[in-house]
Amino acid sequence: MRVVLLSLVIQEFLTLGHSASSHLIPPVILVPGDGGCQIEARVDSTFTNTHPHCHLKPHQWVNVWFESGFIVAPKDEDFRCWLDYIALVYNNTTRHTTSQPGVETRVPGFGNTTTVETLNPELTSFISFRYLADMVEALVHTLGYQRGHTVRAAPYDFRKAPNEQAEYLTRLQTLIEDTYQSTGGRRVVLAAHSLGGSLVLYFLTHQPQEWKDRYLEALVTLSGAWGGGVKAVKVYAAGDNLGSTYIDPLKIRAEQRSTPSLAFLLPSRDLWSPEEVIVTTKTNNYTAHSFREFLGSLKLPDAYNMYLDTRDLLKGAPPPGVPIYCLYGVGIPTVEKLTYTDEDSFPNHPTLTYGDGDGTLNIRSAELCKKWVGKQKEPVVVKAFPKVEHMEIVTSRKIINYFLDLLKGIMERNEEEWRKRSPDYDGGKPGESMCQAKHKR
């Protein structure tokens, strides 16, 4: 029934021509989460090739996230080459990261949805490489959105935390303004997943309210990583295989440890108390207030510096200042403590204790948006979805339908505003469509 009704609405819009529909559909800009877009790399003549079989030729751009040989046919030498291309180097003087010497990376597809729909352009049919494709296809086929026009994306270098995203945030602002203009002055809906939610919140805290009121219709967050999570601690200790049986978490761990975004996602001191132990060994207990000692035990001084750089980026952040729909999953076992029963198991083989969450984010982090209720004049809608996992939230038909209904409601409000402003349709009854009002004449 929902699909039929939406199809009828779209058919009516299409009979009015492109001008009317462009004024009704709220444009959407997607902001992906950690690992949610393609990254390309190339090397120059100064690159020191420590692995003779590495296949990158100078000045040739190749996709390294996800690179098919790394995922589909992993070998030790493939991992070592890949690490040279994608791992970051931290400078404790500038407090910023760069690629390995002789390596340049870029994030393709800014403004379009191609590189967030699938993560490997050569393997688009593989379900494991599809990311936001289902959501984009639903927008296009159900509500009549157009890729690159009314639905766009703002991919970014997810390895880096907000403090290293100044250029990106400027581009995001320009993309929002350009999209607003190109769609006839329609305010933009930002839809952000996971780390993308935190990045957008950081962006909004640096925008004047007048700008937000003019350009933004709403913010929809899917499993927003508001306060980090214990899983980041587990990644530092033992790595994460990204849900793939092909990947050895201990091999990929070096790349993960090199990223400031991982430090940014460590559990917030505002949500975890000094008394709450999240890592316990035979000789030590570690909390969210003792990451200096924990990261020191892993011999990761750069990681601790990254943590110092990022831990307060959202501390005391105000509400976003736009209507927000905060959606997240619950009821999925989510790591909340690491235990090491003997010295030999540290750090590679923890015993994990689980609590509530979405499998990645602990529930206390995902539901942090509840504190904004009543703290801003704009609506704050918080909705938990039982048994929806952190990555499933962007593919779940239940979530996608909720998003479509939200956009449909905005379209109906836009239709009513358009009807009131248009002399051709003056006199229509409230709730009456433009076509109905026109056909009465």
From TrEMBL:
Positions of the UniProt region annotated as Disordered: 417-441
Any one Gene Ontology BP term: lipid metabolic process
Signal listed as a keyword: yes
GO MF terms held by the record: O-acyltransferase activity
Keywords from the UniProt entry: Signal
PANTHER family listed in its UniProt record: LECITHIN-CHOLESTEROL ACYLTRANSFERASE-RELATED
Name of the protein in question: Group XV phospholipase A2
Source organism of this protein record: Petrolisthes cinctipes
